[in-house]
Each structure stands twice: as structure tokens, then as C-alpha cells.
Design goal:
Distance between the termini: 43 Å
Number of strands: 11
Largest sheet: 5 strands, parallel
Structural class: alpha/beta
CATH class of the largest domain: Alpha Beta
CATH superfamily of the largest domain: Response regulator
Oligomer: single chain
Helix content: 40-55%
Strand order of the largest sheet: 2-1-3-4-5
Shape: globular
CATH architecture of the largest domain: 3-Layer(aba) Sandwich
Length: 230
């Protein structure tokens, strides 16, 4: 069954260009020009991946609002910002809202397709039948790879896909330090140090919302991060 990619982009020529590229690579594509149009469609049926511009028609930050609305519907849905806005502040803002990746439009179509294909391949690898029994238990943490689901003290963490992969990479080998590049590789994203830090902060907040004393993700200054057993 074809993966469904939703493209939310207010420039028709750019939207059509991306849509044609994804279709050539075997994806089913739905396109939307406004936040309102997209959110109405998403309420009826979520895609397998959403590619969103930040500025949408009369809404300079409509993409950010759409990301927020999408995250209230699904924690796991992969969301990628693809925008001309290349400031670090915008990138960090998008990731704080729960986007999995933030790409700029100077990225080649070939590179974009490769990133999306690798993302889906990683999801398929984690959820295939041979991995169905791969449940990681680390004290109060339970990670179910087949369902891309994680709980702390039996309460769902509501991790995004990128956050799930980062926690999975850390908890799989407790005590081992993972540098930022290793975490980027695990999450299938290409980010700078500041955005990896943003993901870690957001992950910690989700644990602390359940357990205020949570401190199992330890910062190893100048090295990276590690999962510390209680």
C-alpha cells in the first residue's frame, strides 16, 4: 500500500513540483494551499507524513499553528517543515512544536526524497514482525518498538517520532554516551547542536510532566548524552 504524503504549501508551482517528485517515487500525495484546508482534511484522515511550509497565505506562521494542531491529533505522525525561512530561531521554534525535521527549500529534491525514504524505511524496520518482541525495559521506562510507543511509570510519554528514536538510542545501551552525531543518525535527521539540545529539553519535559524528579538523561558536557539507570 502506498504511503500518503501531505504537502501544505501556498505556492502552487512549488507545491506541484514537490508533489510530482514524490509521485515519481511511488508515493500517494495530497496537496493543500492553506492551513484551514489542510486541517479539515487531516481531521477526516491523517497522512503517513506531513510536509509543511511555515508561511501559509495570509498566515506568516500558519505552518507552526498547523504543526501544533497536528500534534494534538497524533504524537507519532512524522512532520517535516520545508521552508524558505532558514533562521535558527525558526528551526528551533518548529522543533519545539514537535516537528521531526526542519529543512530549507534550497535542499535538492533528490536529497529531500532520500530523507523521506530513509525515514519510512526506519519506521518499517522498527515495526516489522521480526522486531515485534523488542520491548526495552529500563526501570520505569518501557519502549515498544513495534508500536513506536514509550511509557514512563506506565503513563504514555507522547513522544514524536524523532524523540522516540533519540530515547530508544539512549536507553538501548544505558551508561553509554551518545554524541550528537550518533543521536542525529538514530533519529534520521541532520541538525545542528542547538536543535539536538532542543529535542533533549523537550524529551526531558515530557518525562518530568509525569515524574518531576526524572533525571535519567544525563548531559556529558563536551561529549553528548547518556541514559543513567536509577
Amino acid at each position: 500500500m502506498k504511503k500518503v504524503i501531505a504537502i501544505v504549501e501556498d505556492e502552487p508551482a512549488i507545491r506541484d513540483n514537490y508533489a510530482a517528485a514524490f509521485q515519481r517515487h511511488g508515493y500517494s500525495v495530497r496537496t493543500y494551499g492553506t492551513r484551514k484546508e489542510a486541517i479539515e482534511a487531516f481531521r477526516a484522515r491523517l497522512p503517513d507524513l506531513a510536509v509543511i511550509d511555515v508561511g501559509l497565505r495570509e498566515e506568516p506562521e500558519g505552518g507552526f499553528e498547523l504543526c501544533r494542531e497536528l500534534r494534538s491529533m497524533s504524537a507519532e505522525l512524522p512532520i517535516i517543515f520545508l521552508t524558505a525561512r532558514d533562521s535558527e530561531l525558526d528551526a528551533v521554534s518548529g522543533l519545539r512544536l514537535g516537528a521531526d525535521d526542519y529543512l530549507t527549500k534550497d535542499l535538492s529534491l533528490t536529497h529531500l526524497i532520500a530523507r523521506v525514504t530513509a525515514l519510512f524505511r526506519r519506521i518499517d524496520a522498527l515495526t516489522q514482525p521480526s522486531n515485534r518482541d523488542q520491548v526495552i525495559s529500563r526501570g520505569a521506562l518501557m519502549i515498544d518498538a513495534a508500536r513506536l510507543h514509550a511509557t514512563w511509570q506506565e503513563q504514555p510519554l507522547g513522544l514524536t517520532l524523532t524523540e522516540f528514536w533519540i530515547v530508544h538510542a539512549l536507553a538501548k545501551n544505558p551508561g553509554h554516551v551518545k554524541n550528537r552525531q550518533q543521536l542525529m543518525d538514530a533519529a534520521n535527521v541532520v541538525l545542528d547542536d542547538n536543535t539536538i539540545t532542543s529535542h533533549i529539553k523537550r524529551i526531558r519535559r515530557k518525562f518530568q510532566a509525569i515524574d518531576a524528579s526524572f533525571d535519567n538523561i544525563e548531559t556529558m558536557y563536551g561529549m553528548g548524552y547518556r541514559w543513567k539507570e536509577a
